[in-house]
Amino acid sequence: MLASLSLDLDNQWSYMKTHGDPGWEALPSYLDIVVPRVLEMLRKRNLSITWFVVGQDAALEKNHSALKMIADAGHEVANHSFHHEPWLHLYSEEQIQEEFQKTERAIESATGLRPTGFRGPGFSLSQTVLKVLKDRGYNYDCSTFPTFLGPLARWYYFAKSKGLSVEEKQKRKQLFGKFKEGFRPLRPYDWKLPGGSLVEIPVTTMPIFKVPIHLSYVLYLAGYSRFLAKSYFKWALRLCQLNRVEPSILLHPLDFMGVEDKIGLEFFPAMKNSYQQKCELADWMFGELQRRFQVVSMREHARQAQIRLGIVPKPVVLT
């Protein structure tokens, strides 16, 4: 059975912007710290994963060195939108087309690679986004997050976010999804669209219970008990095996950064821990995945899902 790993390369400014913190307009970055750190961990385990890159970061010369390292190491680079706004579902079709076009050009300029996969910021998705993805020749989407805990996560987010205006709260009212997201499938499936089909690779949650199992949540549990955190993840993988679910595990940059990096963002889970402790747990998780599954990139996961679903990929449209 397959498993896939992907990292949403949300930069420091994108977390600040979503959280409503001042100073994000200066676009502060920690990519030069986190990218080499994660690449070295992956190299030691001979893992090739997918990095979802924000177009605004790819457009800045100061980030090109870090992003080129990802491509040079043989990893897939995919689209995570240009402005990293979790209210992407509110955009018009024309705005989404522009958003994708700018992101594709910036990523290709920085890395030499053209993205063929997409994940919406904050799991933001709409039928219009799917239509544009299909029109532009994307091979897969992975913006769905099948959990019932979206409203609870949103409540926690608003509780930690101070000073948001009424307009800003309105934009964020669907952040992390609705309760009904928990009824979505865990296995890959195809979106039936006017131009054909597009494969969806959901972010995996624990089968049956639909609670999150990606690294940020495991690190949060480890703050109370590392034994509990490891048992939780191992049980989740065992349930995936029993239910024939191929896990797609999500990573974030802050999973590999800690208190000594002094970047703030204390609202993010486990940011009071050291990065060494977090990286040790991440490496253990990688090992558990490799022991039970064949770990591949999102592109390869989607390719094999396309074969099973009978989807014929459409060439990427250069515009």
Describe this structure in words.
The protein is an alpha/beta fold and 319 residues long. It has one domain (2-308): TIM Barrel (Alpha-Beta Barrel). 42% of the residues lie in helices and 12% in strands. The chain has twelve helices and nine strands. The strands form two sheets. Strands 1, 2, 3, 8 and 9 form a five-stranded parallel beta sheet that branches. Helix 2 runs parallel beside helix 4, helix 9 (215-222) runs antiparallel to helix 10 and helix 10 runs parallel beside helix 11. The longest helix is centred in the first third of the chain and has 19 residues, at 93-111. It is globular, with a radius of gyration of 18 Å. The mean pLDDT is 90.
Keywords for this structure?
single chain; 319 residues; alpha/beta; TIM Barrel; five-stranded parallel beta sheet; four-stranded mixed beta sheet; 12 helices; 42% helix; Glyco_hydro/deAcase_b/a-brl; Polysaccharide deacetylase family protein; NODB_dom; hydrolase activity, acting on carbon-nitrogen (but not peptide) bonds
Mean pLDDT: 90
Runs in which pLDDT lies below 50 for 5 or more consecutive residues are none
Compressed to H and E, one letter per element, the order equals EHHEHHEHEHEHHEEHHEHEH
> How helical, in percent, are the residues?
40-55%
Structural shape = globular
Number of strands: 9
Assign the structural class, choosing from mainly alpha, mainly beta, alpha/beta, alpha+beta, or little secondary structure.
alpha/beta
End-to-end distance: 37 Å
Structurally, how many domains make up the residues?
1
Strand content: 5-15%
Largest sheet data: 5 strands, parallel
Number of H- or I-type helical stretches: 12
The CATH architecture can be given as Alpha-Beta Barrel
Could you tell me the CATH topology label: TIM Barrel
- CATH level-four homologous superfamily name: Glycoside hydrolase/deacetylase
CATH class: Alpha Beta
Radius of gyration, rounded?
Answer: 18 Å
Organism: Telmatocola sphagniphila
GO molecular function: hydrolase activity, acting on carbon-nitrogen (but not peptide) bonds
Protein name: Polysaccharide deacetylase family protein
InterPro entries: Glyco_hydro/deAcase_b/a-brl, NODB_dom
